[in-house]
Structures are given as C-alpha cells and as structure tokens.
C-alpha cells in the first residue's frame, strides 16, 4: 500500500551537501512530441484561517447524540485551545422514500451546475439537515459490463434507497472530468441522467491519441499537451478525484464521495505524491472516499476468460503461476482503493456483486453530526500538518469521531535567492506534496561493477505547463530541480540539486504547447530498495511538482538462472549531446560514463511510452556476463502478435566495459496502426541456455 504522509520534516540540506552525494551529470533536452435554494441558517465568513471540523458523537449503543451544546466541546489545534466561532447541528433523517413511480417524466438536457465558486463571497450552509453524497463514475477504468453494473447500482439506490435527507451529485471521468449534476434531491432528474449513460464510452484512454478532446472540462489540472502524459498515468485518475474533493470543499457539511471504478492500475513507477495530495485535499475538504470495485466478485479461470487470447503451451497454466499473477494484479488494483478509503475515513466495497451496498454504506456513515468552526491562531502558510483534538465535557460519556488534523495552505511568492533555495528544500520535505507542475519520471539501472550500478533518472515536464519569458527572438525558462534518494531504512544516501536555464528559438516557441522538457541525471548506487523524492520548480510562475516513488536496484549477480539484463530503454529519439540545454561541457566525465551516450549522441528514454507513427522505436539494453545473445522485439495487440522484429545477434562487448554486450534494435513505426500495444523484448543466451524478457505497454498515435 502506498505510504501515508510522513509526520516529521527532516532538517534542510544545503545545496553543496546534495551535490557531493553522488550527482553524476545532467542533460535537459527539448523533445518535439508530435445550484439552488435551501435553508440558510448559518453563514461562514471566508477567511484563510477558518477551519471547519465535522464531529459525530455517539452514545454507548452507537446512536448519535444530538442534544449537546457548544459549551460541551473543547477544541485544540496543536494542543492549543481554540475559540469555537461556528456551531451547528445537522440532523439527518434515515427514512427511505417510496420508489419513484414508473413512467415518470425524464429530463433530456444536461442541467447546468450551480455550484458556487470557491473562496468568493460568504460560504453558506446551503443544505441544512441534508446528507451530501457524490456519485463519481470513472468510466476510463471500467469495461462496458462494469459500467452497466455501476449504472444499475446507482439507479437502484436513487429509486429505492434514497432518504428524505439525501442530496446527490453526479460526476464522471472519461477523457475529461465533469460535474454532470450538482447536489439535488430530484430523483427523477437523477434517474434520467444516470440512465442516459452509454456503457462502453471512454473505457480506453488510448483513444485520446487519435484526436484531441475539445469538450469542456471541469478539471483544470491538465495542460494542452496532456495526451502522452495521461494515457498510462495513474496520477490522472487520482487528480480527478482531487479535483472533485476540491470542488466539494465549498460546502462546510460532511461529504461522502462514492467512487465507481475497476481499480486503479499501476504501471510500475507511480507518483505516490499524487496519492497523498489527493488524500490531503479530501481531508481538508471534509470528504470521505467510498471506492466501489465495479468488477464485483471476481472468479477467473486458470487460463483466463474469453476476453484473452488462448494460452496454448504456457506452463504457467498448469503450475498455477498464471492464476497467481492474475490474482496479484487484481489485489494490486484494489490496493489504492483501500488506501483512499482508509486514509479519508471511508470504506471500500471490494469483491461484492451488489454495488449499491457501497452507496448505502456511505449513507449510513454520514449520520447526524455537528459542524464546528474556529479561526486558527496559526496564520502561517507553511504547508505543515496541524493536529486537531476534540474533547467532550467530563460528564459526557460518548465516542467522538472527527478528522485528526489538516495540512496548512502553502504560499509561494517572489523570494530572494536564499528564500528560493530554502523554499525548495522545505517543499521537498512537506507531508503535503505540491502537484501544480505535472511530472513523469523513469528510473533505469545499468551495472558498472559487482556492487555498483549507474541509476539514470529521466524527468519529463509538459512544455505548455512551463512559463517562458521572451527576449528578442528567443524565449527562456528557468527551472530548479532538487531530489533525494533514501534507502529502505529511511537514510538519505544521495541527492540532486540543479538549476537550468532553457532557451529556445522563435520557431520552437510557436509549438511549445506540443513540446516537452526532459531533464536527465544519474547517481551511483549499490543493489537495494530505495525511495526517490523529486521536486521541480518553474521560476516564472513559481509552480512546483513533486514525484515520489519506490524503486529497486537488483543484484544481478544473485540471479544466475536467467540472462543478466539491465533496464530496457524504450526511446523514440536520439539527440546530439551538444543540443542539450545546460552546458554539457561542464559534465564531460559524467556524460562519458553515461550508458545512453554514444558517439556524441544520447538516447532519450520515452518516459510516457507514447510514440508517433513518424518515429522509430529504439530499444536499448545491456547484457552482462554472456559471450553472445540473440534478441528480438514483439508487439502484441489484443493478446495477439501484431509485429516481430528480425532477430539480432550480439557478440561484441562494449569498448572499455568487459563483459557487457550492448543490444540495440530500431523499429520504424510507420507500418503499425495507431493504438495500444504490449511491447516485449526477448533475449536468449544460446550458449548459457538462459533467457530473459521485458515488457512495457506502449501507445502509437497518429502524426
């Protein structure tokens, strides 16, 4: 399970100390990649230090206590008593309404959302004594049958399980995030909207590569050149959830967000900072997530179901390895759902065919409660965690439920040089990550010696998310990078700190919305498990982005049964080293030792694994301790072979690196149809009677 935010911030590290811990060199390349009426009984003044806490008080039998007064509560922030400025009881009815009559009138047009803008004017309690339930349909992760199952569950709830206190909102996420309907008690309207969903839509994000989506979106987290960043991006689903929680923050009431999906899959290098950011936003917004796995109870055949290609000749069917892998994949997809629920106070519904239970669970959990607000005496916008404690008078014996704290806001203004440096180092340590600047990161390893590995780190940033200043016929952008790598005991073993000024010409500036910035660096590590935390800042607007992920440097000497293989690089471009922005002359030694630099050119890893038909797919890997190998690349689509390269034989070791065979394969993509593929590199050592393979999903899009 992805980790929770750390509770304590490590002391700042100086720029010099980070540089000395193993930084090997940097390259930064530009890559051309082709509402509403309700009773108003309480008004909140919008101030930056107003904190709202929803408190549920239950007696020994589990029933809510609704007769308490303001004087019965004591509220503390970081162990300092706070003066209660807002106190209101929300009494919620649990009586189920009669079913909606059949043949009721339906609505054929989308109803405009009337949600008030956040932070503008007084924020009022719009829904007195109402239970707020959001239904979030993640169509991007569900197959048609699963979408239909989620649709039927929502219809069942609205038709037969809603109570007089329920207000329901509908949100969807396909290729875009949209609020389809704001909170309403109009069941006929809700049923009409839900029944208009067409199962099968938006079930594959790869269609985004064929044509841009011009529909209006309620999500402002993504930029113009988002296609390649989002096709394989787990972050996008989590960012959509974060956006939903942020939109619900304008309501001081308690909110339950039911998230229909088929799990959140992982591609091997997820940004754990985005998960923490989503959870933190939900906690601040008084939103509890109730994820529902729309696949229901899963029982798969050992060889897979009819949706997969036949498995003839696969020994894994008989050994149980195939079934174990399928089960592990499902559990991995459900892990994030469980984390979202556990860390926000909700519950996850997994392995159940009655998906409506997930909605009724949220309905039961949001019982009568108190809205308590106070103006924090700590006005610092430092992004640190503030612990909240709520106590009852000694004479009252009851159980109290509330959020345990929140992260303060972060304020990034214009600083002097030392302020900017301190800001970077402190932001790296914050438990509440900054995700204003989208990042995609890839970590690759190459063996240098018995216990020494070069670890290449590639960071890609959308060009349209970076602010450029113009001077003459050129435009420039300044970016700062800072990172830390910790071992499995939490100790800092190495770090990176760089400042880069990127310059581009007028022609390139005209297409900056379709360009990406790629920053490369490398460190030397011993085999082991590590955690990378990386932060980038664009210095014109001050936007920051955090990437946090675990990775492993394997001990190839301990794996004699298979071919000893480095990370496999899947690239779409070679760049001259002299084209790097950020003087390569200052890092001659590091570049000379870089495994991806040959003959004055650098192979640029395609971090997002999205290629265009006009490109070639470059595959590079190193094989260790073998006299000769034979290799080929196979592309599968829909479980069937779509392409296979001609076999390549390698028997000449790298100059100056004994025992290292360099494998290079180039595949023109012009003949392949746009779509989603599974790319597999097969390596055979005929003399040693060993083999190895590496797989990665790729997408080919039109030029």
Give your account of this protein's structure:
- The protein is an alpha+beta fold and 703 residues long.
- The chain has a domain at 92-367: Rossmann fold.
- Helices cover 18% and strands 36% of the residues.
- It contains twelve helices and 36 strands.
- Strands 25, 26, 27, 28, 30 and 34 form a six-stranded antiparallel β-sheet that branches. Strands 29, 31, 32, 33, 35 and 36 form a six-stranded mixed β-sheet that branches.
- Helix 2 crosses helix 9 (356-365) and helix 5 runs parallel beside helix 6 (272-284).
N/C terminus separation: 38 Å
- By DSSP (H or I, 4+ residues per run), the number of helices equals 12
CATH architecture tag of the domain at 92-367: 3-Layer(aba) Sandwich
CATH class of the domain at 92-367, please? Alpha Beta
Quick tags:
703 residues; Rossmann fold; 18% helix; 36% strand; disordered N terminus
List the SSEs and their pairings.
Elements: H1 15-19, E1 26-32, E2 43-44, E3 50-58, E4 73-77, E5 80-82, E6 84-90, E7 123-124, E8 131-138, H2 144-160, E9 166-173, E10 177-184, H3 187-195, H4 227-230, H5 234-248, E11 255-261, H6 272-284, E12 287-293, H7 316-319, H8 321-344, H9 356-365, E13 369-375, E14 385-392, E15 399-401, E16 405-407, H10 417-429, E17 440-449, E18 452-462, E19 469-471, E20 474-487, E21 492-505, H11 506-510, E22 515-525, E23 528-538, E24 544-553, E25 564-565, E26 569-576, H12 588-592, E27 597-598, E28 601-605, E29 610-612, E30 616-624, E31 629-637, E32 640-644, E33 648-650, E34 660-668, E35 675-685, E36 690-701
Parallel strand pairs: 8-9, 8-11, 11-12, 29-36
Antiparallel strand pairs: 1-22, 2-7, 3-13, 3-15, 4-5, 4-14, 6-13, 9-10, 14-16, 17-18, 18-22, 19-20, 20-21, 20-23, 23-24, 25-30, 26-28, 26-30, 27-28, 30-34, 31-32, 31-33, 31-35, 35-36
Helix pairs in contact: 2-3, 2-9, 5-6, 6-8
């Amino acid at each position: 399970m992805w980790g929770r935010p750390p509770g304590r911030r490590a002391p700042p590290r100086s720029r010099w100390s980070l540089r000395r811990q193993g930084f090997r060199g940097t390259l930064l390349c530009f890559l051309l990649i082709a509402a509403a009426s309700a009773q108003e009984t309480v008004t909140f003044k919008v101030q930056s230090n107003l904190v709202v806490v929803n408190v549920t008080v239950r007696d020994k039998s589990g029933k809510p206590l609704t007769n308490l007064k303001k004087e019965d509560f004591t509220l503390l922030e970081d162990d300092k008593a706070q003066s209660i400025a807002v106190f209101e009881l929300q009494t919620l009815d649990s009586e189920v309404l009669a079913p909606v009559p059949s043949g009721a009138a339906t609505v054929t047009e989308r109803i405009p959302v009337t949600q008030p803008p956040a932070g503008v004017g007084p924020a009022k309690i719009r829904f007195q004594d109402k239970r707020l339930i959001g239904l979030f349909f993640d169509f991007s992760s569900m197959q048609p049958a699963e979408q239909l199952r989620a649709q039927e569950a929502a219809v069942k709830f609205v038709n037969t399980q809603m109570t007089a206190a329920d207000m329901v909102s509908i949100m969807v996420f396909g290729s875009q995030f949209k609020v389809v309907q704001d909170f309403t008690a109009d069941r006929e309207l809700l049923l009409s909207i839900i029944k208009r969903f067409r199962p099968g839509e938006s079930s594959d994000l790869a269609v985004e590569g064929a044509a841009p989506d011009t529909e209006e979106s309620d999500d402002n987290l993504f930029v113009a050149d988002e296609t390649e960043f989002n096709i394989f991006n787990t972050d996008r689903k989590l960012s959509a959830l974060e956006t939903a929680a942020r939109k619900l923050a304008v309501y001081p009431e308690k909110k339950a967000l039911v998230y229909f999906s088929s799990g959140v899959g992982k591609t091997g290098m997820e940004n754990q900072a985005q998960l923490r950011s989503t959870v933190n936003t939900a906690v601040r917004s008084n939103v509890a997530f109730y994820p529902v796995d729309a696949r229901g109870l899963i029982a798969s055949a050992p060889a897979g179901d009819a949706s997969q290609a036949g498995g003839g000749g696969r020994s894994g069917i008989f050994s149980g390895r195939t079934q174990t892998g399928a089960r592990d994949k499902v559990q991995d997809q459900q892990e994030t759902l469980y984390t979202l629920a556990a860390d926000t106070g909700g519950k996850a519904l997994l392995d159940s065919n009655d998906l409506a239970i997930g909605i009724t669970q949220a309905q039961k959990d949001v019982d009568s409660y108190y809205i308590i607000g106070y103006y924090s005496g700590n006005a610092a916008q430092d992004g640190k965690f503030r612990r909240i404690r709520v106590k009852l008078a000694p004479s009252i014996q009851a159980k109290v439920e509330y959020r345990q704290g929140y992260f303060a806001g972060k304020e990034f203004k214009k600083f002097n040089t030392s302020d900017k440096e301190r800001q970077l180092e402190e932001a790296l340590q914050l438990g509440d990550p900054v995700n204003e600047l989208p990042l995609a990161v890839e970590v690759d390893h190459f063996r240098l010696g018995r216990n020494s590995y070069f670890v290449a780190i590639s960071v890609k940033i959308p060009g349209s998310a970076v602010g450029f200043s113009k001077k003459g016929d050129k435009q420039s952008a300044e970016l700062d990078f800072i990172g830390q790598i910790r071992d499995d005991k939490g100790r800092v073993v190495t770090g990176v700190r760089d400042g880069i000024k990127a310059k581009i010409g007028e022609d390139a500036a005209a297409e900056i919305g379709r360009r990406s910035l790629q920053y490369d660096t490398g460190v030397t590590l011993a085999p082991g498990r590590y955690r990378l935390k990386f932060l980038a800042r664009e210095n014109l607007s001050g936007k920051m982005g955090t990437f946090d992920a675990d990775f492993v440097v394997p001990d190839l000497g301990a794996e004699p049964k298979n071919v000893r293989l480095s990370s496999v690089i899947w690239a779409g471009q070679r760049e001259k080293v002299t084209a790097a922005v950020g003087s390569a002359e200052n890092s001659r030694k590091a570049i000379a030792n870089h495994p991806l630099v040959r003959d004055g050119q650098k192979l640029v890893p395609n971090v997002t694994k999205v290629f265009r038909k006009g490109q070639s797919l470059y595959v590079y890997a190193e094989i260790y301790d073998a006299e000769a190998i034979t290799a080929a690349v196979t592309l599968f689509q829909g479980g069937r072979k779509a392409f296979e390269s001609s076999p390549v034989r390698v028997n000449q070791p790298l100059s100056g690196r004994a025992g290292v065979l360099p494998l290079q394969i180039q595949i023109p993509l012009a003949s392949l149809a746009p779509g989603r593929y599974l790319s597999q590199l097969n390596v055979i050592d005929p003399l040693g009677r060993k083999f190895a393979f590496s797989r990665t999903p790729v997408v080919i899009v039109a030029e």
